[in-house]
Amino acid sequence: MPTTTAKRNILIASSEVWPLAQTGGLAEVAGSLPGALAQLGARPAVIMPAYQTVLDKKPDHFKNTGVSLAVSQGGQTIKGRLLRGELEPGVPVYLVACDQFFDRPGLYGYGGQEFPDNPERFAFFCRAVLAALPSLEHPPDIILANDWQTGLLMPYLIELGLDKPRGVFVIHNMGYLGLVPPEKWPVLDLPDHYNNFDGLEYFGQSSLLKAGLVFSRALVTVSPSYAREAQTPEGGQGLDGAMRHHAHKLTGILNGVDYKVWNPKADRFLPANYCVRSLKGKRLCKAALLAEMGLPSTAVDLPLIGMVSRLTAQKGLSLVAEAAEDIFRTGAALVVLGSGEPVYEEMVRDLAERFPDQCRAFFGYDEALSHRLIAGSDLILVPSMYEPCGLIQLYALKYGSVPIVRAVGGLNDTVRDFAGHNPEGFWDTGFKFSQFQDKALVLAVRRAVDLFAQPADFRALVKAGMKEDFSWNSSAHKYLELFEKVLE
Ligand code: ADP
What we know:
The protein contains 17 helices and 20 strands. It is of the alpha/beta class and 488 residues long. The chain has 2 domains: 9-256 and 472-487, Glycogen Phosphorylase B (Rossmann fold, 3-Layer(aba) Sandwich); 280-466, Glycogen Phosphorylase B (Rossmann fold), CATH 3.40.50. The strands form 4 sheets. A 9-stranded mixed β-sheet has the order 3-4-5-2-1-8-9-13-14, with helices on both faces. A 6-stranded parallel β-sheet has the order 17-16-15-18-19-20, with helices on both faces. The two termini are 18 Å apart. Adenosine-5'-diphosphate (ADP) is lined by residues 24-25, 28, 308-310, 337-339, 365-367, 370, 389-392.
């Protein structure tokens, strides 16, 4: 239950917000948490950069507020503008416009190359957020900043010396450190005493993620398991010492799902809808997916494994490549939707060429196809090296597509490993494996395929997963409780 009596104003600063701009799960969190907070009586608003893609996609959606944002950076004054729209009724979304930094294709890079001026771009964004504060309808009590792109907000708030807003920082992925080479330190406009071991310094460079980690009032990771793993040398990406040092202010809060968007009963992207009481539509989704991906229609009776993933080392595609022969020997087929690094794209393309009757891949970012693929698959594979929370497995559960996951981070916290028949009915929801090894992955796939061959039991597992509730409600409560603690 909410412990808050006051209506708190929460400003969520994020470099991506669904449905305006997205490269991964962060956007979905920044796009759906505000609505959940509003439902619980808080007053959320969102602020993000005015990327070219956002303005192109929704040209009439945003109004110029007339507020000009002047930011000094490395001795220069850079001017920005504040635009305003609505994320949903009653939830404002502010855009920080600055053509020199955001009027270009791509969010953080283009054509496989990071933008070299990312430190300047996001230092500017953070300064501009603070410059915009006096012009917002509701002065925030809390600024909720997310990942390296907004990490600088935390030391900037300290430098501002105000009692409010207070800064809470969320780490969605420690793999992205937001590194700044020493020669660029001046563009951050922070006093030099911030650039040491207890500050932003990271092995001779500066880390914007560490800025948020160290200088926030409270720190969140997006699952309890990840909060523990991030404090270990294996999981801490070189920041495990800092995570341990700041463990007193660290909480793990699972991300929630927006079931208005992710619900097989009402999903407008699907060729047929279905629900836990009637799974007929799911079989139609599977047949349509096989046809769309060019797999034989006879495969409709065989287990179909799906993957929707950023193609990066984190997501465990190398494991899939190593295990491929054994996976396909089980008779299962595999469909992959992914975008990201060329080396992993090549790896997946090679699989599709070697196993043309059992493997198909689509490369690119395709929201509609991601829904069709999750609905049409029997099993969803998430073999990540590490996974702070993971959303795919949560969608898979709701869509009756049994997750096969590596037991790390949020994957471990949200899937219960099938432990055999239980006279009281099915309680488990998927298949887990621990070691990051192809043999462990193959074993989990075999267990899943074996159960698939027993339709009544497999259906029971499917239905147990569909009944799971990962809506925002409980996590949004936890955020509100945390905000109250920070405001005490
Ligand atoms: P991460 O944030 O590390 O990428 P998550 O599982 O938390 O992983 O979230 C990934 C989100 O991005 C999911 O909503 C997934 O559907 C979406 N996604 C990833 N790759 C693609 C793609 N190629 N096309 C469409 N959606 C994708």
